Amino acid sequence: MRSAKLTLALVSIAASASLVACGGSSSDGASDTAASPAAATNGKTGKVSANNAAENEITAALQAAGVSNPDRWAKEVMENRPYAADDTKLSSLRKNLAKQKPGQKTIDKIISALTVP
User: Fold this and answer.
1) What CA dihedral angle connects 19, 23, 26 and 30, to 10 degrees?
2) N or C: which terminal CB in the chain sees fewer CB atoms within 10 Å?
3) Among candidates 21, 111, 37, 69, which has minimal Cα distance to 59?
């Protein structure tokens, strides 16, 4: 019984530490975005530029939007740059993402975190 309680306590501590670490990482990315002159973050919507944001900024925005595996999708966003300024719905990005078959929900989440200047 004591061993089970100890195990449960250790798991709880590890989970808490993990959550704190994730939160700290997210905050670091957000502060980098605000401090970087090239960040191109839209303060009103919280979106980042699909054309100008750094990979870590895109990753942080995708993570905040609830995208699974945001590192992978940030690379995909960057790989297909540049996006036309008049493509405000990011249609070309949607088409390229669809080739990877992430599902419509994931595509919508990715697009919701991005903007074009």
Assistant:
1) 170
2) N
3) 69
Q: List pLDDT tens digits, range 68-102.
A: 999 999 999 999 999 999 999 999 999 999 999 99
3-class DSSP state of 51: coil
Tokens at residue 97, please? 């993402």
What is the maximum alpha-carbon separation in the chain? Answer: 64
Query: What does pTM read for this prediction?
Result: 0.64
114-115 β-sheet, strand order: 41-42, 47-49, 114-115
Number of other CB atoms surrounding residue 16 within 10 Å: 10
C-alpha of 25 from chain center:
12
